[in-house]
Specification:
Rossmann fold, alpha/beta, 9 helices, 268 residues, single chain
């Protein structure tokens, strides 16, 4: 894995629980982490973790739905490091108002909440691929790693926009892998991971009650996860390292589940 040392990784949503752990894990391999987040304090917090791990990088406030923000982030990255080797599209998430409930049926989910979730997860990924992928196309080398979700493979109840958006991310990952290899360079790879169930601030309200006990939905998930637990952020790091490394040089257009066996279990 020493071959990753000195590489430059741009990580959108980098201030979040999962992507800040990925940034820290890559920093231990010598990767320079350019952390993008809508919240400047979260980006700075992730960069502090990177530095404590012995690495370095940049913290940039950026909205993944703004091409201007993304272009400014690319310009700053290129002026500092001269290139982009990896793009990790981690910006995303659900919204409580785009979630069905006994009080709010599917038919009454507000359009603006549905559009917010779909745009954040899908358009935020696509726009970042256009901006940073363009820099890779010029160098004819790089890896784009999209963060999908188990919800894309096994649509989950109550979260229609999130499941659909992440399914679009998977389809787009496959499309872009072919496009980049055929039109620009076979040394540009596009892959994705599909995390299973990880406790984050965005989904905690669905999986745990105010006392920290499992909700009925949380219990269902654990009962259908053969490993019998939620994932931890560190569980993502090994797969990400492999997918970015030369060890995966013939791997493109794939989606790797990191789910404790959830996708393999029929429930029987």
């Amino acid at each position: 894995m020493g071959e990753l040392a000195g590489k430059v990784a741009v990580i959108t949503g980098g201030g979040g629980v999962l992507c800040s752990a990925i940034a820290e894990g890559l920093a231990r391999e010598g990767v320079l982490a350019v952390v993008l987040d809508l919240a400047e304090d979260k980006a700075q917090g992730a960069l502090e973790r990177v530095r404590k791990a012995g690495g370095d990088g940049l913290a940039i406030k950026a909205n993944v739905l703004s091409r201007d923000d993304l272009q400014a982030a690319l310009d700053k990255t290129l002026s500092t490091y001269g290139r982009v080797d990896f793009l990790i599209n981690g910006a995303g998430g659900n919204h409580p108002r785009a979630t069905t409930s006994p009080e709010v049926p599917f038919f009454e989910l507000p359009e603006e909440a549905l559009r917010f979730v779909f745009d954040l997860n899908f358009m935020g990924t696509l726009l970042a691929c256009q901006v940073f992928g363009g820099a890779m196309a010029e160098r004819e080398e790089g890896v784009i790693l999209n963060v999908a979700s188990m919800a894309a493979i096994r649509p989950l109840t109550r979260i229609p926009a999130y499941s659909a958006a992440k399914a679009a991310v998977i389809n787009f990952t496959q499309w872009l892998a072919v496009h980049m290899a055929q039109e620009y360079s076979p040394r540009i790879r596009v892959v994705a991971i599909a995390p299973g169930f990880f406790l984050t601030e965005q989904n905690r309200f669905l999986l745990q009650d105010e006392q920290g006990e499992l909700t009925p939905r949380g219990r269902q998930i654990i009962d259908h996860t053969p490993m019998g637990r939620f994932g931890t952020p560190a569980d993502l790091v090994g797969a990400v390292r492999w997918l970015l490394s030369p060890a995966a040089s013939f791997v493109t257009g794939v989606v790797i589940p990191i789910d404790g066996g959830f996708s393999a279990y029929s429930g029987v």
